[in-house]
Here is the input.
Amino acid sequence: MHFNLIIMLKVKNIHAGIDGNEILKGINLEIKPGEVHAIMGPNGSGKSTLASVIAGNEDYEVSEGAIELYEEDLLELGPDERAHKGIFLSFQYPVEIPGVTVTNFIKTAINETRKAQGLEEMPAGEMLKEIREKAAMLNIRKDFLSRSLNEGFSGGEKKRNEIFQMMMLNPKLAILDETDSGLDIDALKIVADGVNKFRNEDNAVLVITHYQRLLDYIVPDFVHVIADGKIVKSGGKELALELEDKGYDWIKEQI
Here is the structure.
């Protein structure tokens, strides 16, 4: 457990929805550097909506509340600006980009972020060294880096690639939205291992998952359960085990 007094992300009474349909109905959440938070809940409860709203997905309309990263208002910023500030979102269904290699995508993403921060482009030699080091950590072969982004990738390859992007971009807050969806146990372990290598006292991770099994490998400091657009219960990692044992109907009975 961490006792950092600085709050990295503050979500205050967020109400948000899509096409006039309110999905989030007053979410409050605080994340400090060095922490791992897990969001669990049944399908349709608002888990992925929360991830999208924090990352700035413009399909969703925020009607009330505030989201701050180190006390800076994020709601005024677009998704690209939020990414440049250090918000990373791993998608449940990553898009394919034919003709753009994994390496070129990473180079562009890093240099765009550096440009937004007023920095020079990363020297080619330094970039190559970083790519090799992070690829080795995730058991990514050299030929994988020259493939078109996500084109023809298996589910496990797509997820591994996203964790690779996360490690290269080194965000302040990494949001993993059901990154365990459709993964076999070997791919799950590789993804979790990458997240655990990424974790340090200066960053934070928000894991959104339907299943407890991912949390065997990425151990959270806090678990929050969303039902009907609200966080209805929070606790330590043992809460995830209790959910696994009793099911989501048990949570609904607590409301």
Observations:
- The CA atoms of residues 55 and 255 lie 28 Å apart.
- The first strand starts at residue 9 and ends at 18.
- The chain has nine helices and twelve strands.
